Amino acid sequence: MSKKSEVQNFVSKKIYLLQAEAGLGSGKAMMANLRRGIGHEPGEMPQLFGIILSDMPEAFISKSGIATKEEWVCYTALTLYALHQQGYDVANMPMHENGKFSIGTALRRLSSTYEGDSNAEVRMLQRLQTLATSVDMKELTHHLRGIVQLLKSKAIPLNYEMLAGDLYEMQFPESKKQVCLRWGQDFYRIVQKEENKNEKRDLI
């Protein structure tokens, strides 16, 4: 199994655990702590050690005291998920969904919710471009936080397992461009589908 797949599996299992315990006091406390972790770096908040580090593969764990790429991804994905899910019932409106809910797909869906706003698509594309040009995980996380807050406001889900894989690959120059291209393709792929639907309606 590739390191990317291991990271995705770990994040997926953690989210499943959070969803399963969402109605319990312990689950609510974990989600609240994860939200408080946004804006911090891995290791800065001891109350998150158990949530993030328990059952983490040994290969992910730093030996130097500086967070590894894997620790950064797991921390970022789980804290953003907690922010995204806040205020929504997990059973009826999960903000983590399997399927093709990438950042590109989600931003495109978000732009379509601003009816009558001719600049919405441009603004969402600019946010995608800003993500693509982020120089490190701190900057990338900062921009992702703003996007997640917008998605949350419109109840648009995201595949956090997919996001975890993308964030892992974004930390390597050779794969970063491939991730960015996929995001761009997802953003415009939905546009093409919408245009095709409109053409079919015109023919009826």
Short characterization:
The protein is about 65% helix and about 0% strand. The chain contains nine helices and no strands. Helix 4 packs parallel to helix 7 and helix 4 (about 70-85) runs antiparallel to helix 8.
Describe this protein's structure:
The structure is a single chain. This protein has 9 helices and no strands. It is mostly helical and 204 residues long. The protein has a single domain (3-198), classed as Peroxidase, domain 1, CATH 1.10.520.40. The chain is globular, with a radius of gyration of 18 Å. Residues 197-204 have low confidence and may be disordered.
Features:
65% helix; single chain; 204 residues; Peroxidase, domain 1; mainly alpha; 9 helices; disordered C terminus
SSE order and pairing:
Elements: H1 3-20, H2 25-36, H3 49-53, H4 69-85, H5 103-111, H6 120-132, H7 137-153, H8 160-170, H9 173-203
Mean pLDDT: 92
CATH topology: Peroxidase, domain 1
The helix content, as a percent range, equals 55-70%
**How many distinct domains?**
1
What CATH architecture would you give? Answer: Orthogonal Bundle
Write down the oligomeric state: single chain
Largest sheet: none
Q: How far apart are the first and last residues' alpha carbons, in Å?
A: 49 Å
CATH class: Mainly Alpha
Q: Give the radius of gyration.
A: 18 Å
